Prior knowledge:
Layout: H1 6-15, H2 20-28, E1 35-43, E2 46-54, E3 62-63, H3 64-72, H4 78-99, E4 107-108, H5 114-129, E5 140-141, E6 146-149, E7 152-155, H6 159-164, E8 170-171, H7 182-192, E9 203-212, E10 223-231, E11 238-245, H8 250-262, E12 267-274, E13 280-289, H9 293-304, E14 310-314, E15 320-328, E16 331-340, E17 343-349, H10 351-361, H11 365-382
Parallel strand pairs: 5-8
Antiparallel strand pairs: 1-2, 3-4, 6-7, 9-10, 11-13, 11-14, 12-13, 15-16, 16-17
This protein binds the ligand O=C([S-])c1cc(C(=O)S)c[n+]([C@@H]2O[C@H](COP(=O)(O)O)[C@@H](O)[C@H]2O)c1 and nickel (II) ion.
Residues 5-6, 95, 98, 109-111, 116, 147, 149-151, 154, 158-161, 178, 181-183 line the site of ligand L2XS5X25.
Amino acid sequence: MGGAAGDMILASLISAGAPAGEVEESVRGLGLPVRLELRRVEISGIAALGLRVDAPEEHAHRTFRDIRRLIEGSGLPERAAGRALAAFGLLAAAEGRVHGVPPEEVAFHEVGAADSIADIVGACAALELLGAETVSCGPLPMGSGVVEAAHGPLPVPGPATLEVLRGCRVRWPEEEREMTTPTGAALLRALTGGEFSDAAPPMVLGAAGYGAGTARLRGAPNLLRAVVGRLEGPVGGLEVLEANIDDAPGEVLGAAVERLLEAGAPDAWLEPVVMKRGRGAYKLCALARRQDRERLARLMMRETGSLGVRHHGVGRTVAERRLVEVELPYGRCRVKVGSLDGEDFAVAPEHADAARLARESGRPLPRVYDDARRAASELLRQSP
Length: 384
Ligand SMILES: O=C([S-])c1cc(C(=O)S)c[n+]([C@@H]2O[C@H](COP(=O)(O)O)[C@@H](O)[C@H]2O)c1
Ligand code: NI
């Protein structure tokens, strides 16, 4: 990686296959009339994409509160919205610490302009279009020197970059350039959970894409490379998040479970508990990939009003699974097949498909389950 800025991250994802038109539409869904201007460039003989966001001039500063409203009302997929909010939350907290104002009140300057919102929201939408369940990345390069910003000349790394990356591993190449901007740092920290490791996870490689930076570096091509792959095992392990809640109605708790699942939790559930002073309550629990922990913990708090979330690492033994599709007389249904050591041992219709078919055909749900299971077993017998 040469450097990390918001435009380079988005360009690399488009270069790796995320359709530019759909990414642009997602950003326009925020009510921002932006255009993504992509240009093909060659750096060290590598064909890369450079990105410039064409956005109308904005005079008003946007606060984090304004940006949160924009993203929440955008109709972005749940996980993309959550990732974008987490990135802006990190930026707001960092800028707030640098300038001594509460995060909600932070008025973004460069980072609040429409092009930076486009970089962050566009990158999260692009990841969704690529089907990226998880993101990992090595320690970010810092650089040195001075940059001109709204407040005047700033030391490199920018104070906000340093704040965003507190607690993260970074590296210091000998380059008198800004190599990681606050937006680039916030996006990558939000997407990875801040666990930057030199060891890339084992994967089956798919497409690679290159996002171009503008500065010329001495010791590396100024490219950010995105590699898409199918992971061979869980990355960074799993954690259980949990909060005891005695003051939320059932509707809120049920909705929280749904939101957590939509936001990428592999599982979420409620357990009845008896809290201190004999109060009957619920424990809201969710399984989270480690890099999603902060994002999902924040979602849990926001959805329930809980002031804290516990988390602890857990192990998991999993069977191999695959989806097959069966044609029933009243529609198609996906069925999950579980296998151990090459032997299929579980055949489970996808609940959403079965429920839809039951509703549309007027058949009882258990009957649809039986039909789908039988059809899938037959299919597996014919093509083991
Ligand atoms: O305008 C502000 S508030 C600003 C603050 C900081 C701090 O580090 S504080 C840095 N910058 C610089 O602006 C450009 C653009 O950054 P993006 O994150 O929007 O890509 C970059 O050089 C920052 O270092 C601006
Ligand atoms: Ni600032």
